[in-house]
Amino acid sequence: MEERDSDQDNKHNDDDHDDYEAVDIERLVRKEGRSNASSFLEREPLLRSRKNNTSQIAIVGANVYPIESLDYEIVENDLFKQDWRSRKKIQIFQYVVLKWTLACLIGLSTGLVAFFNNLAVENIAGFKLLMTSNLMLENRYIMAFVTFAGWNVALATCAAVLCAYIAPAAAGSGIPEVKAYLNGVDAHSILAPSTLFVKIFGSIFGVAAGFVVGKEGPMVHTGACIANLLGQGGSRKYHLTWKWLRYFKNDRDRRDLITCGAAAGVAAAFRAPVGGVLFALEEAASWWRSALLWRTFFTTAVVAVVLRSLMVFCQSGKCGLFGQGGLIMFDINSAVASYTAPDLVAVILLGIIGGIFGSLYNYLVDKVLRIYSIINERGPAYKVLLVISISLLTSCCAYGLPWFTGCVPCPAGLEEQCPTVGRSGNYKNFQCQPGHYNDLASLFLNTNDDAIRNLFSSRDAHEFHLSSLSLFFGAMFCLGIITYGIAIPSGLFIPVILAGASYGRVVGSILGSISDLDIGLFALLGAASFLGGTMRMTVSLCVILLELTNNLLMLPLVMLVLLISKTVADSFNKGVYDQIVKMKGLPYLEAHAEPYMRQLVAGDVVSGPLITFSGVEKVGNILHYLETTGHHGFPVIDEPPFTAAPELCGLVLRSHLLVLLKGKRFTKQKVLSGSDLLRRFHAYDFAKAGSGKGLKLEDLDIKQEEMDMYVDLHPITNTSPYTVIETMSLAKAAVLFREVGLRHLCVVPKTPGRPPIVGILTRHDFMAEHILGLYPDMKPQKHV
Which of 335, 360, 670, 692 sits in a 20 to 30 Å window from 105, CA-based? Predict the structure, then answer.
């Protein structure tokens, strides 16, 4: 039974680990062993041959790293209580003010990064497209393609090298990792400064390289990284130990700040402050309260003010090729304020199409990511080669497909020039004669933001041919799938909006004879339906789209199409971010308990006997178990002569034990010495170090004569850990564990005369693979 317990808690690595190393998958497979439940092979994460997705490893970005749980619970030990009793009103006021100051700094920093991101993308991509356009006007088509593809490959290589060699955790959108962190799962470097650096510049290079990716998902990750950096609580190494900052050396306050950062990322990407708050509430955060809502809203408001100020500055022409574009804002002015029955039928049809396409998109992303994992296992060089291959394919599609479409005469009475001369616009000349434009080139040979603006255009229902829109939809659908998962920062919002707006415009053209809705509105509803079908968000997406388009008249239609698309897609599979969390092996706890958990009680899945310590324990015993186990929490039992009978004193953390042993306040006799420890130590001595750079077992220097001495654990023992009786329903225990944000849940016996603790429930014990491995005859059911 001891072996089972060790496996249960091995995933709780030291909070004090500093430098992880990338782990070779084959070695991990040999270490972890084969899965006990063969029926789960199809649903295994990308680590194909390990025990289950609750082990101590997961895929972060594109590499495999150790993971651990976060301590969101308040450790109410004697040191904590002494610290709170000693705090004065001015210190509490300083803490509150600093929280709001950090929220403001998060919004300010995220807004500045978003502006820099857009400014760089618009100028780099604009310069590339301008060179290509000028060469085509000179009829140097081959040279134009070489220039276009060469720029794309060079930019893609820069992004890939950054991701593959400097910060593999920066690959992908980062939203699944942020979701997992806010759920209580920490992994190597997901919010590190190196990840922030690569996320910013990798996203710039990737989007400017013409990939079918967005910068919106990476902006969420960027905002979370900025919040984590600001909320580290100071650094002794760099002598940044301002007294106030020590209050933030805990996972609870960092969680609040990172939630603000994620909301700020959405607000900066879409210029949607309210949408950012709702995104954090609906999709990112697992824990919420009214005070956090207020602080998050303040953060996104700061982002909106910063972006607005900088955009006004750029309208004077001081930002190069960056003008009013880039920071997405699509004005759709539809004069139709009422909706007839045929209009509602068209909207329902779009919702059904979006749900079907969205579930298919998620299914194919799942399969492609599994294939890419095999390539990524081979090393960084193969990741870079894969990125270059996708870049060449994307360049060939963007430059080659417009040759298969004809030229369209320029509409009469246009205010703008047609064909467009320069970087952006709706009417790309491409290979056409004067007075004509290539409608497909107007979508492909533009930045993604300008392509969306063109699709949402309402000026001419026949601006784009059905064949061009169908071809563009197919290309965006396929390129979006094969691009997500390569070693660059990549978001899913833009590919989904592009594909959805394309088929929305197709449906609008076909149903134009029976519906009075605007063609641009059809494009927006198509984008909304595809977003709902892939991401399964409703309220936040609805508000984001309304803030993007600046038209509240579309609210009922957007609500309807999102509800329908989500309902249809949910009947096939999960949302794309939930699927990716599962594939990466991140032990994410859902908001609801699975139905089969109602058939079990807490005592059915917990194991024992646990490794426990006495209230006054021998130093050698503590050191032995710290060396031989990976447990993070140990029950502390008071025994005679200190109590009449054995009783549970509480729970002590590994990181606190390391600090206590480092201090060497030992006694030769087994006596209580808590008062001396309270004078020697302060609560901030046991605070969690930033970025996992805390005390390690190797830092201890315990001499042989000290091994037989004793140390009093009472001052650092959490005397009020969350406990459940062993007969409590596992479903109830799972909801409690997730809602409170626990790392350990003590299970106590129902009847007297037994040891005071039965075992400890951890995140591992609530995972389906673990439970169904213990009870293979129990079949999972779909949650209703």
Answer: 692
The pairing of beta strand 613-614 with beta strand 633-638: parallel
The span from the CA of 338 to the CA of 332, in Å, is 16
Q: Quote the pLDDT of residue 205.
A: 96
CA distance 125 to 134: 14
Q: Is the pLDDT of residue 17 over 60?
A: no
Nearest in space to 702 (alpha carbons), one of 670, 741, 662, 738: 662
Q: How far apart are the first and last CA of the chain?
A: 35
Average pLDDT over residues 247-268: 91
Instruction: Dig out the tokens for 87 from the structure.
Output: 């705090």
Q: Are 700 and 623 in contact (CB under 8 A)?
A: yes
Q: Round the CA-based radius of gyration of the chain to a whole number and report it.
A: 28
Single-letter amino acid, residue 485 = G
CA distance linking residue 285 with residue 258, whole number of Å: 9
3-state SS class at 405: coil
H/E segment holding residue 66: strand 63-69
Q: Express each pLDDT in 464-476 by its tens digit.
A: 889 999 999 999 9
Q: What is the sign, positive or negative, of the torsion defined by CA atoms of 463, 469, 475, 476?
A: positive
The pLDDT > 70 percentage for the chain reads 85
CB atoms within 10 A of CB 76: 15
**Which residue segments constitute the domains of the chain, with CATH numbers given?**
89-316 (1.10.3080.10), 341-584 (1.10.3080.10), 596-778 (3.10.580.10)
46 contact partners, CB below 8 Å, separation of at least 6: 59, 369, 370, 373, 583, 584, 585
Q: For residue range 635-677, what is the model confidence (pLDDT) as tens digits?
A: 999 988 888 889 999 999 998 999 999 888 888 888 888 888 8
Mean pLDDT of 7-31: 36
H helix or E strand, kind and range, residue 579: helix 576-583
Would you state the structure tokens that stand for residue 413, as one six-digit string? 């009475």
Which of 14, 59, 61 minimizes the C-alpha distance to 166?
61
d(CA 264, CA 212): 23
CA atoms within 13 A on the CB side of 399: 23
Cis (ω within 30 of 0) for the bond into 66?
no
**What dihedral do alpha carbons 422, 424, 430, 433 form, nearest 10°?**
-70
Rounded CA gap, 45 and 581, in Å? 9
In this prediction the pTM is 0.88
pLDDT digits (tens, 9 = 90+) for 109-121: 999 999 999 889 9
Local confidence band at 608 (pLDDT 50, 70, 90 cut-offs)? low
Predicted confidence (pLDDT) per residue in 546-587, tens digit? 888 877 778 889 999 999 999 999 999 999 999 999 888 889
